[in-house]
Structures are given as C-alpha cells and as structure tokens.
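tool_call: predict_structure(chain=1)
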Amino acid sequence: MGITRAHIVKNDSLEGMLGDYVGGKGRSGRGGGGGAARHSTRLVGALTCLQLAFAIYATFLLYYMSPAVDLRVKPDLAWASRIAQHWKQLIATQPGDSPALLSPEEVCEHESIDFEQKKSQDEVMIRLKRELYDEVLAHQRRSFGAETLPELLRMRSRWSASGPNVPRVTVILNHFKRRTLCAQLESLRRQTLPFHRAWVLSFGSPNEASLRRIVESYNDSRVSFVASGYDFKYYGRFQMALQSESDFVYVLDDDMIPGTRMLEILSHVGGTDKYGNAVLGSIGRILPFRQKDFTFPSYRKFRSKEAGLYLPDPAYDITVDRIVQVDFLSSSWFLPAELVKTLFMETPFTFMTGEDLHLSYQLQKYMDAGSFVLPVDPADKETWGDSEHRLAYVSETTVIFKDIVQVRDEQWWRALTSGYVTQWAAMHPQKVDALFYAHSLGEVRALAPLLEKFRTTAGRKAYLVVSGGGHCPCEEAATVLKWPKVVCRERRFKIFDLGIGALSGPSRSEVPVLQAVYASMRGLVRMHNPSVVVAVADVDGKVKDALRMAADAAVNATALVLLPRSSVPKVLWMATLKPAALPNWNRMRVSVNIITQNRAKSLLRLLTSLRSAYYLGDEVPISFNMDSRVDAATLKVVSSFEWPHGPKTLRRRIIQGGLIRAVSESWYPSSDDDYGLLLEDDIEVSPFFYLWVKYALLAYRYDPAVSLPELSSISLYTPRLVEVTKERPKWNATAFFSKSKAHHPNTPYLHQLPCSWGAVFFPKHWREFYAYMAARFTEDAKQNPVQIPRSRTNGWQASWKKFLIDMMYLRGYVSLYPNFPNQTSFSTNHMEPGAHISAKDNVLKHDKNDFEVPLVADDFAPLLPMGKMPPASKLPVLNLFNQAVSMKGLKAAGAKLGQDVLTCGAKELVAVDHITGLPTNCTLF
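tool_result:
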C-alpha cells in the first residue's frame, strides 16, 4: 500500500531520453561519424514534426480540458484528454528537469450524465411506497419526534462551525472506476465547515495513476492518497477509518457529491444529545415487513409494499423532509470516530457485500446507536448529501445481480433473527409467550417437551433460540426437534440461530460469549416481548448471566426461567398459564417451616420426602421450629440435615410454648410475595407438592386478570371427613362433584376450612390472622366469643386452627384444595401420637384410613379439567360444612354471625390494613 500526500512523482521525459541517445549514448560504432550525424538530423526533424502535430492536437482539445465541472452535459472524451495531457507533459519537460505540477483543470475527469432521473409510472407501486413511508413517518413522529431540518438546526449542539468547539472531520473517499473525485474534492473544499483530513482510497483500482495525479494536482496538505494493489472491497475504507484521530468520520461512496453545507449540518446534528450516538447519512433503506402469510419477502421484491423502502426515492417522488430512522444507510456514513470499531465486533457474514447493513446492525446491537437519514431543504441543494442522484445509475455502478440479492437477503434475515430491531419490529412489537434458549444440542433435547407443549397449546406462541456456530447449529437443532431443516432457511419466525459459536466447556474469557449472547437476546426480547425466557439451569455460567441481563433489560416484564433438566417434563402445565401470569414466575418465595419436638423418626421421613420433591430451581428456605423440650434425637436429625435448595434456619424456644405458639410463631411474611408452608413432623409430602403450589399461585394469585382476594391459602391435602361436624361423616370430593353437571369430577375447589396437614399460607391473610389471634387469644378458650352454629370447633381447646377457622368464617375467606381420584394428595398425615393425638386416642377415636391418603406420584396436570387449572370464576365454593355455596353466601353467613372484632352491619365485613393486619373499618361486600 502506498500513501501520497500532495507530492509530485518524478518521471523520465521522452525528450531527455532522446537527447541522451542522440547526444552520444547511442554512438557505439567506430568510423561512422558522418553517417551518424545525417541519421541524427533526420530523426530530430521527424520527432520535431511529431511534436508539432501533437501540440496542434492538444490545442484542438483545449475545449475539453476546461476546469468547469459539468456532470450533466459534458461528453465522455476523457480518453482523448488523458492522451493530450500526457503528451503535453512529456513535450514541455526539459531534459533533467522535474515534471511540472499539473493543475486540477488539467487532470480532472468527469462523468457524463445525459439522461433524466428515472421516474416510476406504476401507480400501484407509487401508492404502496407512499403509504408505507407515511406509516413509518407517523410512527416515528409519535415515538421520538422526527424533526425537520430547521428544527434540527435549532437544537442545542456541542459543535459549531463558528466556534468555540469546531469539530474535526476526516472524510474518506473510496474510488474504483467512477470519474467523480474532482467533483467530490471541489465540494469538500467549499464546505462551510472545513474538513480536517481527506483520505482518497484506491484499492485495486485500474485508475490508480489517474486518481493519484488528481490528488497531487490539488497540492492540499489535508488531502492524502492511499493506494493498494489489493482490493480491500467495501470494508477497507472502514478499516482505514479506524486510524482516524478526528471527532467524526465521513465515509462517502464515489457517487455522492455532498452539498457545501453538509459537514456543518452533519456535525451540528451529531453534536446533539438526541443524535450524538448515531450514524447519519443521506440515503437509507427500511428492510422488509412481514407479509400476511407470516413470511418476509426479499428486499428487492417487485410490486410489494412489504419489501420495504429506499429513502429518499426520486423514482417514486419520495423526499425526506423529516429525519427518519432507517435500518441501514447507503453511500454515505457520518459517525463519531469512536463508533467505527463497532463494525468489527462480529465477523461479517461476507466481506463481498453488505458492509452498510452490517454497520447499522452492529451499532444498534452493541452500542444502541440508530441510523438516520437527514432531511433536506428541497430548494437548497447545498443541504443535500446526494446532490446528483443520477450518478447511481451510470455504467460503473455496482450491479445488483441475483446472487448478490440472495446474499443480502440472507444477511438481513440473519441480522433480524439475531436481535436486530428493524423498523418493522419497532412499529409492530410482537408478543410471544416464551423464548427458549439452547446453547447446545443437549439443551435442545432437554427443552423439547416443554417447547412442543407451548407450540401445540391453542393460543400460545413460542420460539427457539440456538447459539449456532459449530456447537449448536440450527439444522442439527431442527433434527433433534424432528422439524424440517428448511425452517433454518425460510424467512419465518420459528428458530433463531445467533451464530455465536458456543463453547464446549468453560471459556478462557467470559467476555465474548456473555457480550454476544446478551446483545442478541436483548434485541430478540425487545422485538418479541416474551413473558418468559426459558433455559436449562445448568447452562454455561456466562450464558446464564447474559440471559438474566437481557431479561432484566426488557421494557415489558420478562422472567428468566432456569429449569433443572429433570423438571422440564414435569412443568408442561406452564403452557396453560395466562401470558400475563408467566412474568411473575420468579416473584413468589415459598419457605418450608417445620414444627417438631420429639418424633425424630417421623421428622426424618418428612425430610426425606421434602428432599425428593421438584423445586424447579427455585430457592426454598427451610426452618425448624422446636419447643424447649425437644429431644436429643430430633436435634441430631435437624443439625445433620443438609438442604440444597436454600438457607436452613433453626429456632428453639427457651420456655415451652405448646403447639398453638409453635405453629403460629413458626413463620411471619417478610413481603407480599413471601408464602409459608407449615408442616408438622408427622406429615409426608409428594414429590410434586411444590409444582402444585407454584401452579396454583401463578394461576390464581399472579394472574392480573384474576381477582380472588378471599383466597388465603393453598392446601396440599384432600380431606376424607367433614371435620367440623360432630358426626364427622366421610366425604369424597370427586364423588361429590361427579353429581354436578357444572363441574369436572376432579376440579380443584375453594373450601372455607383451612388445612393444618400441609398448607401454604398467604402473607396478607397471615398478618391478618396474627392481629386477629392477638385480639381474641385468652388462656381460657371458653371465653372466646365466637360460636359458629353447628361447628364442633367451638369446643376446641388451645388450637391455633380454631382461631383461623373463626376468622375465615367471619370474613368469608377460603382455601384452595386439590381433588384427584381416591383423595390422592400432595401431603398426608400419618396420625402419629403428638400434642393432640395420644397413642390411646389414636386407636380409639382416629382411624388412619380416614386421614392417610395416597400421594401424587406422577404428573397431575392431565387429571385436571381439560388438563389445566380451571378459571377462578369456575372454581366451586364450599362452606365450612362442605356445602356448595357462593362466595357471597359465605360472606353473608359471617356478617350474620356478627362476632368479629369490629361490630359491622348485616351486609358489612371487617376490612384490614394488609401491612399490619389490623382492622380498620367495616366495608360492604
């Protein structure tokens, strides 16, 4: 590569060489002096005549050597001009002298433009293009306020042509065959804001010598000529731009003749806060929009509104009168010099074409920088960045061959599916339920059941994102999913290949993977607004961090769900949740709180069942609450127990408090998303208990469309007796609802009875219970003023559950119960001797068959009505005595009893402060 800065290269002159030859360098023969003289005289005469002939010819061509730049009408006789100039230089140079410095007028060449600007006569296309442009502009005016040129120039800018902050701009002119260099340099020299440097690049150009002479003729120290015999193609100029020390870089194609105010306008806009982090230009393209068949057309598709826009487009009379954001710029790029390196963050799809798209894609993806076409003043060509658009149509322009179109189509589609938020995506934000991310083929295989469940569930939409590269290529992922490989090539959303090149093991540097995954996923999340991003819990640590950052950066709520591989087939019910509930996947925090004292064997059985349960990767704290008389065996079990799912806490009372205090003081919520599972040590749980709790919370507590403030807890257990009546008759929920045509036999149901054999209690209601119990607790249970008609709970002594039943009855609260065949439940009570059940009483009054129930051992979702939780409005409601009632009927019964801590009217219930749990007033129900 050679670099010339306005210097003159010395050439040997023809006249000098001839003089040397005639003067004696050619006399090597002996005795031939006279003949040689006569021969020399004839030769000199002949050459003199030849010189005279060329001098006359050169004079004849003086008209064509005019310095005026008239690109519209000047005939293309550059070949003759070059011959005349070359011979004039040779003739005028004396032997031994340096060649004279030529002026621009003598060396400049100009394009011949003898045709009118192309105009479309297709009325349909004109209408479609105009409609799309109006839609784009209307959206951008609403979203960020697209300014006119006068409005832009009135904005505050850090740069000014008149000072004190005058920007330095390096202009890069890349030339190959077009004869426009002189016109560009003349325009640059007349700019209202002087340029700092101008680099003329000639990479593999057949016109290198001519381009060099033009640069030298201007004799301007600011203008340098950079040449190479190797053609660095379209990226070479940006590689040169990396060397710039200016504030801005202005890269121009050889068909762009900017108006004399362009540098001033560009610098002013580039100095504003709003457009400081952007690339500015004069021509841009908006990429295709999605068609009705959900595919994207080629950007060159004929007679298609969805094919996108070329802006401005003189062929369709579309001018840019307001700044407009585009998907990529063409022909000219003005950007802060520090942003140029962003072009090379990722290896381009190809170096043969597409640097314009790659630049805008990389700038948005990694720098959040937009691409904008500046508006112009139609009456002032000096504000135009493209003052002669017809140059784009002359013979030396880049021909758009079919294979190039295919390459560029594939390039922009890869960008779109790798996180490039195009104008279509900005105007038409999508809403999907889930994006599944797989960094390896093994992860694709692990996530496949849940992905398929989402895709086959009516009304649900989910896509797969793969890391790509050699580790998880799209086509191999499609094979794992038994999808046709064509899904990786068709322009339709289904599977996104990020092309990252995943690591097979821990990376030596965590930056490249984290940055690439984060940047791509952030864009995809912005475009598709997924409710959840799902990945396996053991995904690479850097990838996990990147996914978390991308989800956290979402404008709309998006949750990152990291599932253990073994749990994926167990949560297929996730696809049945409402999209609005899914973002709350990680909000709830369920803690396990165990009440134990002296049943070490029972405790060990409970702990074994807890450790065998599925927790979906959630953190689940566990606490042990022991009274003062806890035995040594229990202490050893508790101390040696290892809990892999969260922190473990031990509490031991100094003074014996009894069961009522042990239970009620075992947990208190720290937030409105903190839920407490209370378990006595003779309970055993199903491996699926946590899945039931999570599903129920998401369906009935975290779905914004569901209003069920009466729900105070979720039971793990299904009772076999009507517990509160003196007779305690047997009861079977499945059989009960089988008699009803309105409900599925296995529908979950709402029951006014709280469960003490495994239940998750809600924070607001537990605070309320604390306040209620504090107001009503007495050492003498007979002094309790609440007497529920026909309830055997009125005689219960020292029972925390009695107080909770009273509060739920008075205020119309309910608990959610499971209902599966044979009362199969998520917990069971083994009815072992304890505070309430002595060994003798257990034999005489309690039949284990009435209390022990089978545990759920497999996926329970298929047993639910239509395989999912029914809508909250469809849940049947039972009162304290297992009788079907309405929610309003429950409240009416409590109001009628009128024994709450506040005296309220017949149609009023007590309202509470949900932070303190204290009663505040009476309110109508």
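agent: The CA atoms of residues 409 and 623 lie 59 Å apart. Proceeding to next step.
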